[in-house]
Amino acid sequence: MSTTDNATDGPPPGVTAAAEEAPRPAAKVSRADATALIDRYAWHELVAIYAGVFVFLFFLLSPFIEGFLVSLKPLSQLFSSPYRFFPENASFAAYVSMWESVPGFARFIFNSIFISSVATIIVLLVVVPAAYAFARFDFKGAGLVLGGFLAVNMFSGAVLIIPLFRLMRSLGILNTYAAMIVPGVAFLIPSAIWLLRTYMIRIPKELHEAAYMDGAGYLYTLRRVILPIAMPGIIVVAITTFIGAYAQQFIFALTFNSKTEFMPLPVGLFAFFGRQEVVWNELMAASFVGIAPALIVIFFLQRYLVGGLTAGAVKQ
Predict the structure, then answer these.
(1) With contact defined as beta carbons under 8 Å apart, do 87 and 73 qualify?
(2) What is the rounded CA–CA span in Å between residue 242 and residue 236?
């Protein structure tokens, strides 16, 4: 038999049949081909998506941009005709003069931060054990109570302002910090329980059962096992509660308080509304200075906020 016939009848010398039947390595896919497989949008679809995002951001950010530009304009340019979007001779003079226009402005900011911080602490003290109970224990009426929490969120503070005023007067806490903290806490607790309960449901039940088998009580399990794991969700609740308490102070402070020493920032901004004119550039400057504490909180805690919102999105 010739060497040619040997080559066609079997594998070459030194090569086994198993090696011959082994699967060949897959061909490498270039980065451009991989991108093409993932990105299945046509060019006109991408244009539509980016145009929609641009329009959304424009309507979302344009009031803030306009307000900031107004704070940089002199009063003589605010009502000039034709109207100029970008100011001429822009300056930060309003950010200096506003402190003189309202001498107690620093006190107003402190009051807002204090009220929001105390309300956040109280909400967390109530919400953490409540959310743990609703997430881990089955008891009669749990669904009814959770539904009642949603019903509370459906009512505006303005609807309950008269009953709340009579309650505050009967408790003797009008014209105090408590008159603005207590109603705020009552309206913030329901949504905070729902938010944290959803996060705690994602924590494996095996952790709770293992702690129970080791003889740990419910409070010990909550403090030593659940809280470290649920900390991202707790931080999310703390941030949203602080921002909510910071934003809802106006109606409660306007109704339940008449003393300047306890007045928060939203009511303090009324000082910029004069009987003859409104100092719009100073009002806008004070507004941006007033929202700075909430922006600072979000800036330093944004990584916890994003982590807490996305935790549990992928099943482990």
Answers:
(1) yes
(2) 10
Q: Answer positive or negative: Cα dihedral of 158, 273, 279, 243.
A: negative
For residue 181, the model assigns a pLDDT of 92
Which pair of tokens denotes residue 173?
A: 């806490």
**Helix extents (H) in 73-204:** 75-78, 93-101, 105-136, 142-154, 161-171, 178-201
* 146 touches 133 (CB < 8 A): no
Collect all residues with Cβ–Cβ distance below 8 Å to 17 and sequence separation of at least 6.
11
Q: Which long-range contacts (CB under 8 A, 24 or more apart) does 129-135 make?
A: 129/222, 130/189, 130/193, 131/192, 131/193, 131/196, 131/197, 131/199, 131/200, 132/200, 132/222, 132/226, 134/193, 134/197, 135/197, 135/200, 135/201, 135/203
pLDDT of residue 307: 59
pLDDT, mean of each 10-residue run, the chain (316 residues): 48 50 52 54 87 93 89 82 78 88 87 93 93 84 81 76 89 90 90 88 84 82 86 88 87 87 86 73 88 82 63 48
Closest to 224 (Cα-Cα) out of 243, 211, 213: 211
Size of the chain in residues: 316
What global pTM score does this model have? 0.76
Residue bearing tokens 């409070």? 219
Instruction: Provide the pLDDT for residue 215.
Output: 81
- How far is 222 from 228, CA to CA, in rounded Å? 9
Inter-residue contact 284 to 68 (CB < 8 Å): yes
Rounded-to-integer distance, Cα 222 and Cα 127, Å: 13
Contact yes or no for 72/92 (Cβ under 8 A): yes
Question: Residue 56: in which H helix or E strand, if any?
Answer: helix 43-72
